[in-house]
């Protein structure tokens, strides 16, 4: 069993100008792979303080895992401190320099002289290549076998480096065996306490695997955690629990692990041989954006008409001027007309429309900030509507409205088996 | 000047099941009040490790500021460790016990025996009353004058205790006067190393105010930090530095502090009396979404046509079938036609179009994954185009493409003073 402490480097994180999400991700991943995380630390861009911190960590634990401070600017001092902590000078790592030069060439940019500093690494270290950025990571070893691993602070560079390079290195070095394996079941349209009532007895009785609930704002996940010697063994322990949970959650369950709600919707629309699209006012393209984020969405998603101005609702979605004048843009009638208009103008089987008041201005007593009308036009020509009012500021209202729209689409698809496509 | 380190106690935060927002808040508040924060740490519910950590902190700094672990459950061991670190036994604090009993009475609940433990505090400490919860906070002093302050982990209890009790105590004890005030200048379309070259001499020479660079993926901020006795004094120190920086950054500078790139664009479009819209393929509504996120965007933004399917590009944006057949959807010609189509169909002065290959499928040797064509149609009918290739996965490409689109719009607006609106 290996023990480590996590060190986040950077004044911005230390002083709270940036929220540290890296150490949360790293701690979770390490715990899942059987590494004991004893402590987490955050220091500013100060080589002496980082050096003192690393010395302390290497007294208590097998190693330190650092993120941040590998960039090309003069305030990136991590490597100097690490070199001192493990007693190794920084030397030029030619393959990393060449990889960086190649990367710059590929994107048609000239590499600045100060980028070269990123290719200097502690002598004898294990290099962790960075296919998603310029600065390589590394694991530097002290003579006594204690280690300091360094990864970039940019999450999209750090995460794959951790999963594909550092964790395999840790597994090999510490012969990690029993680890925690997880499966996450995603739900939508059911609250935390409702869900709790459905699974409470399992929550109390199960030991290994055990289950936990995790609320993400307006969606709840159920996580199944098994301590096992291998993924295969864990999967066998997890499978019957997952099946029982899916049965209890019913149509609110939409997928496992990496599956997104939009991804589950795209898969269902494809499975039915349908196409779909959106007509958005207050959500302003956010629903379309979530759908297009799904690889392969083009097999079912045809497009969206973001009709933010009223006369665009008329010219591109055929909402009548009379409707807009008599009941207003934020109304059931307008939502229905938008959904129908999207279905015909985009040439899709299924269309969802949103129109609402995101704020901060524009609310009235009858139509307060947070009010959103939804309409779903189905392949059989029928239109369902829903009125919801969301709390929070403009960003909250728009975010909740776009997730609610996906939730409505999901539940429409669950009920759609009997309806033929046009 | 006082120096402290922040210690967050609790296994949930250490292992990443809860995101630590407390230490971010505390670090900001302390910095604003002139307290130097040297480091932040997170430990689990383990009294020995917390004790060892506090010993280290009190060697390096004037004091430790802890949150969490003051509850009534058996894993709340903070006070034992603190008592040992400062060399004081825990003794019953009668006024706190009476306040707790009163609080329970008030809410009509019976106080459990284990709640009483919350009223045991290190001998001789300064008590920080907790009007928002049961557990009081405290500042325990060691014989040499070093201190350990403890507050609850629940943010709505911790925040007022920090503001109303702990910070006043620190101000008095350390006769704090000066504090750190900041201003952030946002840039777009310029890389970290380019920017570094333009401001490196200031970075090296300035002491107070000093400057720092902060990269957010594809955008870089320059932060100016002034240590001063008041906001007014700080503003006077910051103003000339900000002016010099803006001059050097030129048109890549788009705003200060809370200003977003989309917000700066909306303001510029409104200032010119124009309207604008987008035609999106690979970005799939992400550009529109960022613009609609700006409060008051409706004064200039009319909408977007997300034409993900090819024939929607034809039916709603008037891209000719011949163009799509001969040069394909991802081409300069298609981007131009989309931008012109958006300008006429949405009835806007200015329109930007995107068409590209987000991946993971669909790339070829000539049109690799990451290739995106942009076109901007201007009020005078002219269309500019740009071809870019972005690294990374589907999410990276789409994210970078939508920021690049805003960057192009921004630079187009900067050059637009002489062009009349239609």
Could you describe the 3D structure shown?
Chains A, B: This is CinA-like protein. The structure is a homodimer of 422-residue chains. Chain A has 422 residues and is α/β, with parallel strands linked by helices. Chain A is built from 14 helices and 17 strands. The first copy, chain A, folds into three domains: 3-173, MoaB/Mog-like domain (Molybdenum Cofactor Biosythetic Enzyme, Chain A); 179-256, Alpha-Beta Plaits, CATH 3.30.70.2860; 261-414, CinA-like (Maf protein). Chain A has helices at 11-14, 22-32, 47-60, 78-86, 94-106, 155-173, 192-205, 231-249, 261-271, 286-292, 310-317, 321-326, 332-346, 394-414, and strands spanning 3-9, 36-43, 63-67, 90-92, 120-122, 126-128, 137-141, 147-151, 179-187, 210-216, 219-228, 253-256, 276-280, 301-307, 350-356, 371-377, 383-389. In chain A, the strands form four sheets. The first copy, chain A, has a six-stranded mixed β-sheet, with helices on both faces. In chain A, strands 14-13-15-16-17 form a five-stranded mixed β-sheet, with helices on both faces. Chain A has a four-stranded antiparallel β-sheet with strand order 10-11-9-12. The longest helix of chain A is centred in the last third of the chain and has 21 residues, at 394-414. Chain A is globular and about 80 Å long. The relative contact order of chain A is 0.08. Mean pLDDT of chain A is 90; it is low at 418-422. At the A-B interface, helix 1, helix 2, strand 2, helix 3 and helix 10 of A face helix 2, strand 2, helix 3, helix 7 and strand 10 of B. Strand 14 of chain A pairs antiparallel with strand 14 of chain B.
